[in-house]
Amino acid sequence: MSKRHSAKYKIDRAMGENLWGRSKSPVNKRSYGPGQHGQRRKSKVSDFGLQLKAKQKLKGYYGNITEKQFAKTYEEAARRKGNTSELLIGLLESRLDAVVYRAKFVPTVWAARQFVSHGHVTVNGKKVDIGSYRVKVGDVVEIKEKSRSMALVLEAMQSGERDIPDYLEVGDRGFSVRWVRVPELADVPFPVKMEPNLVVEYYSS
What we know:
It holds the Pfam family S4. The protein is an alpha+beta fold and 205 residues long.
């Protein structure tokens, strides 16, 4: 197992949840945390502990983006008018690597970031290789013609593990999607319960 894959599954075990709903997740077999003390009886978690876990879970879900990037995304959500927790989810979902993952171009969010950085994706016909690039309503995200036959792409498209959400409009035989609208928390197909309200509490306390 590669370092990236082991790190990914370490997050699953640390959280005690199958974050991406994948059949390979180790928590499908054992739900306790990693390490020799993973099976100890759980003590009552403080409010701060709950807020921290909610932040780590949401940050980990999007490919464990850096603390600096995540905090910056929160700050942008807090500056905007409206519900900060909903705005935070909307901003995270509008990341190009998240859109590539949601579109089922690749099987994992980790693969999505690599797929983007290797130049396999265009936005409105222009190559974009930055995973954190912000997709806007109406933008068309597409797999380059020469990248469409990659085994990674074909595996993801044929997988029945997850569905494409309705805020993405599928086109060109599944090789492109249009960002129709910014989703709210209820629209996003998280396999586990996400609590962005606790993330907001974490940063504002």
